[in-house]
Write a structure and sequence with these properties.
The structure holds two protein chains of two kinds. Chain A is an all-beta fold. Chain A contains no helices and eleven strands. The chains are: A mainly beta, B mainly beta.
């Protein structure tokens, strides 16, 4: 059982380039999330999805877009990368936002924007 | 507003006990979570508290006081593999998780 898988694991971009991070989960979870993690800061929610075909903005959505065309996949896109988007990106999924709230995280994608 | 705070770094000795504190402020509260994150890896779930009191899970225990906006994670019989960052997060009225910056725990032999 793979859980949550993110690709790619590492990527270096030049300012202005675009890219897509792919997240796939095989747990049939309804909810999926994209977070970024920066030194000295807590995880910050970028976008999330409560089900196939739906997306919503999180705390820091600017400069990112997402799509959830299939229940198991959640894509994060950067249209024009900026150095401020250098970060470690984590995808997560959960069964719901019930009192359980346990998130299952992918291994992370380390992005560097030069 | 909402905020959450935990110490940046703590050091403890193998075999000892350590308590990691977390304080938070929020108008809506739906639970307090602790996650463990080893360097370069993903966070993994440790515990969840929604009612006041102590929840014990083997060597790890988590405590919550909603009136004080306070939680702690207690780790007993420390092992070298417990060296990691410990992330505190509360779930707000919209069931969104608000994360602390994490406490890096260093275990010395």
């Amino acid at each position: 059982n793979a859980g949550v898988t993110q690709t790619p694991k590492f990527r270096v971009l030049k300012t202005g380039q675009s890219m897509t991070l792919l997240c796939a989960q095989d747990m049939n979870h309804e909810y999926m999330y994209w977070y970024r993690q920066d030194p000295g800061m807590g995880l910050r929610l970028i976008h999330y999805s409560v089900g196939e075909g739906t997306t919503a903005k999180g705390e820091v959505p600017d400069g990112y877009n997402v799509s959830r065309l299939k229940k198991q996949n959640f894509l994060l896109g950067l249209e024009s990368a900026a150095p401020s988007q250098t970060s470690v990106y984590f995808c997560a999924s959960s069964l719901g936002t019930s009192e359980i709230g346990e998130l299952f995280f992918g291994e992370g994608s380390r992005l560097t924007v030069l | 507003g909402q905020n959450i705070d935990q110490p940046t770094e703590m050091t403890a000795t193998e075999g000892a006990i350590v308590q990691i504190n977390c304080t938070y402020q929020t108008s809506g509260f739906n639970g307090l979570f602790w996650y463990q994150q080893h360097a370069g890896e993903a966070p993994t779930f440790l515990s969840y508290n929604v009612l006041d009191g102590l929840e014990e899970k083997g060597r790890f225990s988590s405590f919550l006081s909603r009136s004080k906006g306070y939680s702690y994670l207690l780790l007993k019989e420390l092992q070298m593999k417990d060296s990691a960052s410990y992330l505190c997060a509360f779930q707000d009225s919209n069931y969104q998780l608000i994360w602390g910056a994490g406490t890096k725990l260093i275990i010395k032999p």
